[in-house]
Amino acid sequence: MTGPWKSTAASLHGERRHLVRRIAFVMPSARAGGAERVFVNLLRSLDRRLFEPVCLLVDASGPYLELLPDDVRRVAGGGRRLVRSWPTLLRALRSLRPDLLVSTVPHVNLAALLSKPFLPKRTRVVVRESNVASISLRTDRRAPFFKVFYRGLYPRADAVVAPGQAVKEDLVRWFGVRDERVLVLPNPVDTAAVERQARSGGNPYCQGLNLVSVGSLTVQKGFDLLIKAVAHLVRGRSDLCLTIVGEGPERPRLEERIRSLGLGSIVRLAGMQVNPYPYLFHADLYVLSSRWEGLPNAVLESLACGTPVVGFHCPGCAGEILESPRQGMLVAPGDVKALVRAVDYYARGERPKGRSLLPARFHLETAVARYQEAFLEVMGLG
Q1: What is the distance between the alpha carbons of residues 45 and 365, in angstroms, rounded to a whole number?
Q2: How far is the C-alpha of 80 from the C-alpha of 78, rounded, in Å?
Q3: What single-letter DSSP state applies at residue 352?
Q4: Which is it for strands 309-312 and 285-288: parallel, antiparallel or unpaired?
Q5: Whole-angstrom Cα distance, residue 105 to residue 367?
Q6: CA pseudo-torsion sign 106, 108, 110, 116
Q7: Full-prediction pTM beyond 0.90?
Q8: Comparing C-alpha atoms, which of 67, 59, 60, 58 is closest to residue 40?
Q9: For residues 190 and 364, what is the distance between their CA atoms, to the nearest angstrom?
Q10: What is the largest CA-CA distance in the chain?
Q11: What is the per-residue pLDDT across 266-282, written as a single tens digit (0 to 9) for each?
C-alpha cells in the first residue's frame, strides 16, 4: 500500500487500539451511485473510538474519492474489473485482518462470500443488498449464474443488510436467507452536506413548473413512462419542464422517444452531475417512475432538499419512505394516467423552499447509529 493509497493519518493510539474494531468496506468504485453514497457516508461518520474503517476499491476512480476522509486507509484493486482486482484486494484483506468485511452490489458481494474460507477466522462477512434481487436479476444476462450463487452464498453471510422490509422479505422468500440474518438498516443521508451542495449551485431551471428525476438511464428507472406522462401533462400546461439527471444505456431510446413525441423543448437529459442537489432543491416536484427499486437514495435526498415526491408504488422499498401527504404520494405501479393526476395535484400547491421533508430515521446520525449497533452485534459485542 504505497503512494496515494497509503493511509494519510496515524493509527489510533496504542492504549485503546485493542478496543477499536477494524472494518473493511469493499466498494465497486467511487463513482456516483446510491450504494457508493451509503458507504461514503458510513466511512465519514463511523465513531473512530469504536471502529477503524478501511476502504477497498475494485476500480479506484470516481468523484466520491474526494469525499473519503483522510484518516481512512485506501486499497486499490489495480483494475477496472472485479476478476482482475479481486486477487489484490483478497491479499490486502488477509493482511489487514479486519474484524468485519462489508461489501455492496451483487458481484462484489458474491466475491466476498466466495472468499470467506480464505479470510482470517475472526473476520465476519456482511453483504448489503440494495435492490429487490428476484426482480433485478430478471433483466441481467448473468441471471442464471447469479441466482445459483445467491441461493448458495447469501445464506452463508454472517449478516445481510437490507435497506427496507421489502428487500428483506425478497431475500428470505427467494434466496433462503434466514430471517434473523437480515438486518433492515436505513440509508444514511447527510442532510447538512446535501443542503450545502444544493445551495452552492445556481438555479438550473427557467420559470415554470419544473419536474426532476435522477437515476441511471436504464429500463428499471422507467423514464420512458415518465416521458409518456409528460406528453399528457403538456396538453394542459405550457410552462412545464422535465429534467432527468443521469447517464446510461437507454439514452438513445429515450432521445428517440422525446423526438417522436415532440418534447425536445420540454424534456432535458442533463447527464451525470457530480452535484445533482441544485436540481433537486430548485425543482417543484421529484417524480419516481421506476418499475422496481430498492430504497431510492434520490428520493431521500429530494425530501432532504424539501422537494416532495410523486411516483409509482413499485416493488421495493419506496412505499416505506413517505409518512404524510406533505412529503408526496405514490400511485399504482406503471399507471401513467394516475401519475399525471398526482403531478397535477401537487403542482397546484406551494412549498416553502429549504424545509427538509426527510423522515428522521434517515438522518445521518440516527441511521449511522443503527449501523454501528448492528456491526457490534454481528461481531458479538452488542
Answers
A1: 8
A2: 7
A3: -
A4: parallel
A5: 20
A6: negative
A7: yes
A8: 67
A9: 5
A10: 70
A11: 999 999 998 999 999 99
